[in-house]
Amino acid sequence: MGGGRFTGAPVVVLGGAGVLGAACARAFAREGASVAIGYRSSANAAEELAAELGAAGGSTFAGRADVTDAESLRGFLAAAATAIGGIEVLVNAFGRIDAADAVRFDATDPAAWDELFKVDVRGTFLACQLALPWLRQAEKPAIVNFAGSYGNGTNQENLVNSVSVSFCAAKGAVRGFTAALARDLAPHIRVNAISPGMIEANWDADWNIPAEHLAEAKAATPLQRMGYPDEIAESVLYLASPGGGYTTGQILQVDGGWLMPG
After folding, report:
1. Which distant-in-sequence residues (6+ apart) come within 8 Å of 256 by Cβ?
2. Model confidence over 56-76: pLDDT tens digits?
């Protein structure tokens, strides 16, 4: 650590204790960034990750950040900015993971719908808005949101390939928010989103997804496999880096060719 595309840059990763958030935190640290890790409930995982990055020579900070609570989020961002020297890159890698969202439309619980939007959509809005004072002071600020791919499957019972209505609606809101925010904050702050496809994770435990549905979804994906967390992290680095400096308001599909908008 200590050299790379983000040497000395203060980077905040919300959802940094999750599979994809942790991969992003490690990738930024390898490129020399000072990384603040925000978590909602995974305190041990976040502290262990911060210790790991710190032991490798990086400047790190970990703190609780409930993205559904403006005061919690405001306090975390202030503490993070103090600890790592501001905020130049904001990565919103959080998202609700609950089997209640992996159901057909007629089985969707309105309370689960509301909670999904509260975390994924309102949480992304709050994080971006509350980080603005520091982003506006940064030299090359960037925001990377996490959206999600829409399903293109024809088996409606396979919620990997077809994707639930509530998930698509929430992630669609993040996509629209990202494009509109990029226009609003241009030219100084760039805003993009990444849209992961099927990524290696604990699908059965988190979503109650059976193995045969995963196999069917992989068979329908041109690259015939799931993605790796590090592939998502590298894509996030591109969007936040000088290499992505002429890119804003875009949704980067990293899904093995699952969707090909053309």
Report:
1. 197, 198, 221, 222, 223, 224, 225, 226, 227
2. 888 899 999 999 999 999 999
